[in-house]
Amino acid sequence: MADHTSSVSQARKTRGRSKQRIAALENRLAALESKLRQHEAGQDVLDKSLDSSNVLSGTDGSGRFPPSLPLTQLFKRFTLWQQETLTKPLDIIRFSPFTLEAPEMRVIELYFCDVCEELPFLKTHWLLNRLERTSRANVAGVSDAWWQGLAHAIIASVMHIKTVNSSFRDVAIYSWTFFRNAYAVLPELIIQGDNLGAAQAVMAMAMFMRLSADSRTTAHLVSMAIRMQLLVGLHIETISESILSTDEEENRARLFWAAYMLDMEMSLNTGHPPVHANQNIAVALPDHSRLGDGNQRDTVFRFRSELARIQQRVSTLLTTPNEPYILDLESELEAWSLRLPLEIRPNWPDDPRSFRTDQAMDVSVAMLHFAYYNSLSTACWESSSQAIESLERRTSRHKSVARAAARATISTLSRFPTHTFAELWKALYYPVSASIVLLAVVCKEPAHSQAPDDLALLSWFVRYLDRLVRDEGCDLRKMRDGISAFEKVAAHAVNTARRNSNEPVDPALWPIGQASGQTGRDVATLLTCTTYHPMHVAQSFMGNLLNRDTCNAKRLAELLGLSWDESGYGPFVPELLMPATYGFAFASNGQA
């Protein structure tokens, strides 16, 4: 009897498991049927959409794509996935610990002013208050992504500009790690679009990338930051009642004008059209008396904004040179310089040896002077390169101004306040451009009375770079060797002119295999008759952004025996300033 009871119980258990298996199979069949129905519905939609298209037709003229076309096959693959998977929100790729902790916050607090020394795009007091509130998970009305992007980009910049040159490579690995975290939120910031914080974060990324040699990515980030600002409406005069606070009003003004300056600087220095194409800016110039910090840098910020307005008009000369317009711009630039306070006014130095070591300028002042001299040089270069007999006197005067601006630029370098590698790099575009100007005018007129002084300035620049390499640990060997080649060609031109006057020539100054004098003549023709402006050549030598003079720059490098890097960077770029050195690149092509 017990055996019979056991058998019945076992049979019931077996039937129970069978029912479970049947139920499971029914569920699987139902799910499969649902997917097939989705596929059929999707196929119907696809067929109808393709049938209704009269733009593309199949081989039979029916308007239907053959079933074997990739589009149809791709759609079939999509329908096998759950709709929830296809519409899953994007996620951030985290390259390292993402949460900022006390040490990182302290770094921002201590050194943020140094990051904004040249372009104060954020109000310091506002940022410090924001740091105090970061312990809260969510700040009302503010997305966390923009703060992560902003803070990580600032920390990356601090590490770059505060690292001793001898340890630059070792520390740069960590600064690029922070920047990668900032860059990781960029897609989310783009989707946010009209968020002021997103525009601030992308601007901070552009400021960091400007410390590298990747001028192409810098241009992308600057353009993106400006577009975000336009979406926020920073270019529109705001009504005071619509602003939440004084801090926000000041932040909007700082961000707009800092980005505007970068836009005009890049446009003038590369020949690319500015993002701010409209010259009628509705936003008032920054009032340094109202800017919160109230120091000399705020005064410089105001005058740099004014200069940027003029630079926008100067950049148009590169495509449409006009003699009366050039004279007007020269007068406007001179009037601007006379409005500057005496302590920050450009004084046109022409001998870097005349300054004492304790006469260093503030970075913001030095960059202001560089931008001013370069604006004048650009305004005059186009006219000075046109040998029009009826304008010979005017042409000579323009050439004289361009020459004086180049000499003042190199002399100002002796007062640049820091030799930190990354921060110095962004300033070296100007003296490199000035060196190309002097190379051009010396090779074109080697017998000119000022040619020996121009040659002396080139020699000083070579020694300056050599000292940075030897004593400061800056990886500027390629630039030093390149400027040395400039000096040798210019020296040979000057000495050839002396030889024609029965004066002795020093063969040690000749470039190897280039003692015939033809190199100097070729350089003069290239730079004075073909090149738009030497600054464009300097940008090509020191970056990877194509411009109208990139071909001329490569031709000049060929004449001087300088090699062009296969990665697309110019002959002056050290490996330490290439983002790919620190993994900021895609494995497919090795470039960022």
From TrEMBL:
UniProt cross-references to CDD domains, sorted A to Z: bZIP, fungal_TF_MHR
GO biological process: DNA-templated transcription
Any single Gene Ontology cellular-component annotation: nucleus
Keyword hit for DNA-binding: yes
Domain of life: Eukaryota
Domain Xylanolytic transcriptional activator regulatory, first and last residues per copy: 218-292
The keyword Nucleus is annotated on this UniProt entry: yes
Any GO MF annotation of the entry: zinc ion binding
Keyword annotations: DNA-binding, Nucleus, Transcription, Transcription regulation
Stretches the record annotates as Disordered: 1-21
Location relative to the cell: Nucleus
UniProt biased composition (Polar residues): 1-11
InterPro entries in the cross-refs: AtrR-like, XnlR_reg_dom
PANTHER family: TRANSCRIPTION FACTOR PDR1, ZN(II)2CYS6 TRANSCRIPTION FACTOR (EUROFUNG)
The protein's name in its UniProt record: Activator of stress genes 1
